[in-house]
Amino acid sequence: MLVFLAAVAVALIAWRFTVGLGRSTALSDGYPWGIWIAFDVVTGTAFACGGYAMAFLVYIFNKGKYHPLVRPAVLTSALGYSIAGLSVMIDVGRPWAAWRLAKVWTWNLNSVLLEVAVCIMAYTVVLWIELAPAFLAKFKTTGPAKVQSFARATLPFLEKALIWIIALGMLLPTMHQSSLGALMLLAGPRLHGLWNTAWLPLFNLVTCVAMGFAIVVAESAFSSVAFGRKPEFGLLKPIGRVAAWLTLAFVVFRFADLAFKGRVGLFGTFDLYGIMFWIEAALFVLASFMLLRRKQSLGSLLRGAMLVAIAGGLYRFDTFLVAFQPERGWHYFPSVTEQLITLGLVAGELAVYGAVVKYFPILSGTEGERA
Amino acid sequence: MSTDRRTLLKGLCAAATCTVAGVSAVEAREKKVAPADAVGLLYDATKCIGCKACVAKCKEVNKLQADVDGYGDGLYDAPEGLNEYTKNVIQLAKYNGETSYVKKQCMHCVDPACTSACMMGALHKGKFGIVEWEANKCIGCRYCQVACPFGVPKFQWSKLSPRLVKCELCKDRLAEGKLPGCVEACPRQAVIYGKREELLQEAHRRIATKPDLYVNKVYGEKELGGTQVLYISHVPFENLGFRFQQEEAVPNLQQTVQHGIYKGFAAPLALYGILGAVMFRNRKKGDANDDVR
Amino acid sequence: MAATNSPADHCTIAQQLESSGVSRRDFVTFCGKLMVAAPFGLGITNYLSVDAVAAEIAGIRRPSVIWLHMQECTGCTETLLRPATPDLATLLFDVISLDYHETVMAASGADAEAALADAMKANKGKYVLVVEGSIPMKDNGIYLKVANKWGADRLREVAKDAAAIVAIGSCASWGGVQSSGINPTGSVGVDSIIKDKPIINLPGCPPNPYVTLGVVLQYAKNGTVPELDALKRPKFAYDRVIHDQCPRRAHFDAGRFATQFGDDAHREGYCLYKLGCKGPVTHAPCSTRHFNDVVDAWPIGIGAPCFGCTEKGVGYTIALFDTVPIERPFGPDTYPGVYAERKGVSPAATAVAGVVGGAIVGAGYLASKKFDNVTGGDSDTKEE
After folding, report:
1. B111 to A182, B221, B256, C74: CA distances (angstroms)
2. Given A237, A299, A335, which is nearest C349 (Cβ)?
3. Closest residue in A to C375 (Cα–Cα)
4. Whether C327 contacts chain A with CB within 8 A
5. Are A202 and B16 a contacting pair at CB < 8 A?
6. Residues 221-280 of A with CB under 8 A from B
7. To 5 degrees, how large is the angle CA C50–CA C54–CA C59?
8. Cα distance between residue A56 and residue A208, in whole Å
9. Distance CA C57, CA C47 (A)
10. Would you call A33 an interface residue with chain B, using a CB distance cutoff of 8 Å?
11. B77 contacts in C (CB within 8 Å)?
């Protein structure tokens, strides 16, 4: 099923490059960015913040017990970011010109998108390097002799350098996840007042960490079933709490900010924006209460985590699509092609995740955990 | 459990401190002013007869194809507005049972959002303050379209190698000593070309001569940081489709925030150092975190 | 008729008119019509008053014209011979000295050929050659033979001593109807065969006779040809498309079209574009210079869409009722509003989104239910 969806996406991507963006998507001059940006890139990388969030927990706050959750989280992140990068290449009109980003001297340092793009590319590389020990550990003992010796030679060196790479792996998401929020600040007066605030970067950062934790919970639960392992419920429950407190803090801060800016009046307006705003808030609050429940099962924890993910995703959709107000008369709803490509990319991501986890020491309790 | 809360609080405080420090430390971004040799257009809505000669001339000089898909019934060149075939358009504004024509093209902002958005400066302010587009620096990300408050930059959705389509004030014609196409074609001088300063004076002079006719405002003098294309009208500008009357330039907020955080790239470097140091200490301590893999 | 003038009889036009008794009034009327046909771009009509033009033309020595027929229908000749006022036909042949013309000359057989030889000899290097019809080139040109000579050979022979060549009609200009489709005889226009002479193409089926006369007189006056476009058509007549000055243009601009022959719109005289009018791509003077001295005597004038006869690749090529693309058209009342309504949302897309979104959320919920029994708090408090 996953492979089929991915294959459909590949075919549709080929179609997009045959007929152009105009015919294959519902994008327009009014809504130049659609779900490929709002979901694949902005929401997708937020989902992929598991690696970032777990790294903070384990390496900075020194919670070694969570270590088993790091590698799967980093793998999810690496895949998620790679998908985001791929989506961008599908989305932009002139992808063949992207290599010119390598010409550092042509950079426009005022461009937030440039920062996001460069950071995301760099972070994708960092993530794969962080994962490299898992692959190398496997190749130390399998594969052709040359590969084995290469793996043996590289591994110690890599492990020594890893600390600085991981530090980079925490710096880069801090930068670009906040900047992803700052992106829409440039829409300026065309962004609805309930979303348009100078705190967008921080809001984006906080919610992405919460979403990252939520995804770690979900991924851990699902892969325990898929690979017949005991769920790490004991580890997951506190993570859920962290996500919950972050979420609550975000909601409170957000209301306070809007109140401070004198936009309370907008709360009460019964239009699309007001409604979406309250749905978001309700989802966030509901999610955090579910995660904070004292009597907790893995099921309810998972539901809470998924709610955090949905709420965070909705917040991003609203910021990038709903609250964005081009001239009257423009409409956007993702075309079937756009949806199926996004769906297929996610399906492909899951399939690759499954395959990698099967063959390489990613999950704790499987072969070669200490490699 | 208390650990979680403590952890969280620590994290939140750190993040908040960073951002607050960043946001509040910066003084507001310096206000940009038009270059001394800035040129522009002055459009007078009271003079326009809606003959669309400027639209035709614009298509001719810019070699743009006819757009028969809009209102054209597959026959006429009748675009729905600015689009990938149209850099200049005459719109019919209807309000309270009255009508007025209004010409739309790039406003050539003094402080453009699009150039601030553009990753490699494919869109940039060139000679005379004209906002130009350079094909080989554009990767088609369309952030400029998100940014532009006037909805001006248009993307060739129908093309496999799409380009950005927007008025560049006929910069090539200017170099040849000719007038912009629309100005040359206009039979009533409803749109005139000149230095921005002189156009501003002319606009104010016209308003002063006929204060009963005109709205007492030159749109573009201060709006959204000022534009090089100026408008005067007998109709409130909101009715002509100018949505924003505030004077703050669009990139102001974002640029203030971002340049605040990234000033001299000090904050990210400091954060990197701190992160590395903390991890290093943790590793030394051994603790539960015995390997950093 | 004056077509049998002896070759030596080349007095001025004024003298000829006097001797044949044409009234000054008729001549001035003719000059006026010529002015209308060539409002600018033609030296001999470039004067403010009809009198001045008449004086200019009257002083011209009647040019010797040799007229060859190739593959044609003689329509071009007919258009010269069939003005509404019969006197004019006489007048035309007083203005030029038509020394050889197979259709209108009295002589036949060897006498006719002798006349041709005489004319060529007497006016060697000075006569104007008018060619009507296309020249077959396929199979060594065997599809046309006149006076025991192949068409192409005859053309080369007569063209050799001509001062200039006027290719009259679409056939002589670019092959015309004979060259359409498979072009069975390999028909070509004059300029494909003769390369070393000034050639003026006057495409049309037929072309306007005043245009022909204007060109010939201009040449007779000072040996110059009017300014030509890339296809060797005189700009004074062929610089614009019919659409530009069509009397029905207002209907086009207003979006009023006849959509069927005989429908109300057709009777109202609305634009014929949708019936296949080729006016927008056809360069010809028809919209301002009608035929046979009769107002509205031209296709669009009588309610038939322009056929594009002057334009290679249009006439005889594009089907009669097919429409053609239009360069830079502007419709009436097609102003976009300040906020134009753009294309809406596809219901199919919303449906797919609903199904996919619902499936994912539903599956997630159901999956989470499976974990409800997992409550083990094994390592929950270990860390403290």
Report:
1. 18, 12, 14, 71
2. A335
3. A297
4. no
5. yes
6. 238, 241-242, 245-246, 249
7. 155
8. 13
9. 11
10. yes
11. 328-331
Q: In this complex, do C342 and A296 lie within 8 Å of one another by their Cβ atoms? A: no
CA distance B27 to chain C (A): 38
C-alpha–C-alpha distance, residues A348 and C109, integer Å: 90
**Maximum separation of any 2 CA atoms in chain B, in Å:** 83
Question: Which residues of chain C are within 8 Å of residue B241 when distances are taken between CB atoms?
Answer: 338-339
Query: pLDDT per position in chain B (293 positions), as tens?
Result: 444 555 555 555 555 555 555 555 455 678 889 999 999 999 999 988 787 889 989 999 999 998 888 887 777 888 889 999 999 999 988 888 788 899 999 999 999 999 999 999 999 999 999 999 999 999 999 999 999 999 999 999 999 999 999 999 999 999 999 999 999 988 888 999 999 999 999 999 999 999 999 999 999 999 999 999 999 999 999 999 999 999 999 999 898 888 888 887 888 888 888 888 888 888 777 544 444 43
Interface of A with C (CB under 8 A): 26, 28, 30, 63, 65, 221-222, 225, 231-235, 237-238, 296-303, 306, 310, 327-336, 339-340, 343
Best A220, A230, A233, A300 member to test C by mutation, with max C CBs in 10 Å, is A233
Q: What is the mean pLDDT of residues A158-178?
A: 88
**What ipTM does this complex have?**
0.90
Q: Is C343 on the interface with B (CB under 8 A)?
A: no
- Looking at chain A, the number of H-run helices and the number of E-run strands are 14, 0
Which chain C residues contact residue B91 at CB under 8 A?
Answer: 335-338
Per-residue pLDDT of chain C (384 residues; tens, 9 = 90+): 344 444 445 688 888 888 878 888 888 888 888 888 777 778 888 888 888 888 888 888 888 899 999 999 999 998 888 776 666 667 777 888 888 998 888 888 899 999 999 999 999 998 999 999 999 999 988 999 998 899 999 999 999 999 999 999 999 999 999 999 999 999 999 999 999 999 999 999 999 888 888 888 888 888 888 899 999 999 999 988 999 889 998 888 766 888 899 999 999 999 998 899 999 999 999 988 888 778 888 999 999 999 999 999 999 999 988 888 776 565 556 788 888 888 888 888 888 888 988 998 898 888 888 888 777 544 433 332
Which chain C residues touch B81 with a CB distance below 8 Å?
A: 336, 340
Q: Do A335 and C343 count as a contact with CB atoms less than 8 A apart?
A: no
Report pTM: 0.75
How far, rounded to the nearest angstrom, does the alpha carbon of residue A225 sit from its chain's CA centroid?
A: 23
Q: Are A101 and B139 a contacting pair at CB < 8 A?
A: yes
3-class SS letters over chain B = CHHHHHHHHHHHHHHHHHHHHHHHHCCCCCCCCCCCCCEEEEEECCCCCCCCHHHHHHHHHCCCCCCCCCCCCCCCCCCCCCECCECCEEEEEEECCEEEEEEECCCCECCCHHHHHCCCCCEEECHHHCEEECHHHCCCCCHHHHHCCCCCCEECCCCCCCCEECCCCCHHHHHCCCCCHHHHHCCCCCEEEEEHHHHHHHHHHHHHHCCCCCCCCCECCCHHHCECEEEECCCCHHHHCCCCCCCCCCCHHHHHHHHHHCHHHHHHHHHHHHHHHHHHHHHHHCCCCCCCC
Q: What are phi and psi of A303, to 5 degrees?
A: -60, -45
Contacts of C364 in chain A (CB under 8 A): 306
- In angstroms, the separation between the Cα of residue A14 and the nearest Cα of chain C is 19
Q: Rg (Cα) of chain A, in Å, rounded?
A: 21
Query: Residue C344: its chain A contacts at CB < 8 A?
Result: 331
Can you say how many angstroms the Cα of residue A317 is from the centroid of all Cα atoms in its chain?
13
Residues of chain C with Cβ-Cβ distance to B88 below 8 Å are: none
